[in-house]
Amino acid sequence: MKTTGTAVDAGVRAVLAAPRGHRFSRPAAPLSREQRLLAQMRGNPRVERRLRQGELPLWMHIQAERLAEQGQPVRSTPSPQPARAPRPRPAPDDGPPPPAPEQPVRPKPPLPRRRPHSHRKPSTRWGRLLTAYTLAVGVGAVAQHLVTALY
User: DSSP strand E in the chain: where?
Assistant: First the structure.
């Protein structure tokens, strides 16, 4: 059967005129069951943490199982505390705190003087080394003078 120059639908022309890779629309990927449940549980603090930081690592699940076997309570993320209702009747500690007893004001001791040149304690090693070298040179000079006087 031969086709003749009949009018082509405008939608077909738009598809054929589109650049390669953009000719056909891709259907949206359906949400997985997990994603649908997470979307429903948006107010839960654990779900909010999971959406922010990702899924908990495997070792945390294993530790929770171990603690459950031992009968210890499993720590969870703290949930926000609801606002407290006012007390139904006044309690003895409801007033302002009692005044603190008067204590005499003592002047602070003066700060210790600081050495202006360095923040470290001066080393005594250099003084000892300088003294040892001076003594060695002096003893050597006297010994040389005595040895040359003997010849």
Answer: none
Instruction: Please state whether 61 falls in left (phi above 0), alpha (psi between -120 and 50) or beta.
Output: alpha
Q: Is there a contact between 63 and 75 (Cβ–Cβ < 8 Å)?
A: no
Nearest CA to 49 out of 83, 80, 73, 74 is that of 80
pLDDT tens sequence across 118-132: 666 666 677 888 999
How many angstroms separate the CA atoms of 9 and 4, rounded? 14
What's the token pair of residue 102? Answer: 């008067």
Kindly tell me if the per-residue pLDDT of 44 is higher than 70: yes
Residue that has been written with the tokens 């304690």 in this structure: 121
Element (H, E) at 75: none
